[in-house]
Amino acid sequence: MAGLRTILAALVLAAVAGGAALPAAAQPNIRLGNEAAPQADLQVDRPMDRPMDRDAPPVPTQIPGQSRGETWHGIRLGERGTVSIPNRQAGVLIQSEGEAWRAVRNGPLSDYGVWALGGILALLALFFLVRGRIRIDGRKTGRTIQRFNAFERGVHWLTAGSFVVLAVSGLNLLYGRHTLLPLIGPQPFAALTHYGKLAHNFLGFAFILGVVLTFVLWVGHNIPSRHDLTWFLKAGGLFSKGVHPPAHKFNGGQKIIFWSTVVGGAALGFTGVQLVFPFSFATLEEMQLYQLAHAAIAIVMIAIILAHIYIGSIGMEGAFAAMGDGQVELQWAREHHSLWVEEVTGEKPGHHHGTPAE
């Protein structure tokens, strides 16, 4: 028994002696009764707080010769690092301009687009309710005159058809997640968006071809003239029955449609090619600007073409036949394009500036 007590005493003495040999910071604070435990002054030696050893090998996210703060500041500004693959763009870890692009795309661009498209639809509906369909004022002759030949109509429908598909698929990319997705569900929306994107990419070249042919065919008829000023001053007779300003093959309003299609289509084609072939002609920052410009121009063109579709269909009697079978009622041609009728037939319309000719 005495031997056991001797062994225990030796162990206690050894433990006390070992605890006294430990550094003060490593000794535990023991609370005795109600005695408050002293506060431990613990400091963590973090790598960012230590002076950087210039000779030490850098960590993977640190550029040699820079502190980690300097490194991350450069990364945030889009500095490109070194990569071992051909794609040098992969060396950019953070592309801050992407935040600005997303803020504009999901903010002002989308918001103004809704107002622009909703506004034009509302104006067209109001115009139809107030003015109604624009009828042929004079007595119909029962005779027709060729307005456009088969090739011209083919170019028109190539441009118009491809534009409609591009407009619908493009609007889906911009607004579909908030409109179609809740209605049809994830799987149908994913399939629709996938095939819409494919159609958008390939039909974009058909649209570019249509714009080029449109320019070649009709640029000579769309040079502004003094008669356009008269047409605009009288608002094309759209708001007054029996008033038909003189016009050549294309009136002032149609010339706006023509130049909007040519200039806007060229801009859409240029920016679209940059996006279809990423990094082939532009940097990532330039592509973001092209995407915003592409969407903004497309929204403006959609608004203009909606007005064109309205006038060419339900808005004006006899207008659709021009791009249908190419033949229009002679009286319709006299009322809306009297100078062109004079050029083609040699007849003299009764009144260029007032009531329609009989």
From TrEMBL:
The record's subcellular location field reads:
Cell membrane
Instruction: List where the protein spans the membrane.
Output: 112-134, 155-175, 198-219, 256-277, 289-311
Q: Where does the secretion signal sit in this chain?
A: 1-26
Cofactor(s) recorded for this entry are:
heme
Give the primary localization class.
membrane
**Per UniProt, which keywords does this protein have?**
Cell membrane, Electron transport, Heme, Iron, Membrane, Metal-binding, Signal, Transmembrane, Transmembrane helix, Transport
Q: Which InterPro entries match?
A: Cyt_b561_bac/Ni-Hgenase (IPR011577), Di-haem_cyt_TM (IPR016174), FDH_cytochrome_b556_subunit (IPR051817), Formate_DH_gsu (IPR006471)
Q: According to its record, how does it sit in the membrane?
A: Multi-pass membrane protein
Q: Which PANTHER family match?
A: FORMATE DEHYDROGENASE GAMMA SUBUNIT, FORMATE DEHYDROGENASE, NITRATE-INDUCIBLE, CYTOCHROME B556 FDN SUBUNIT
Question: What family is it from?
Answer: Belongs to the formate dehydrogenase gamma subunit family.
Record protein name field: Formate dehydrogenase subunit gamma
**Source species:** Azospirillum picis
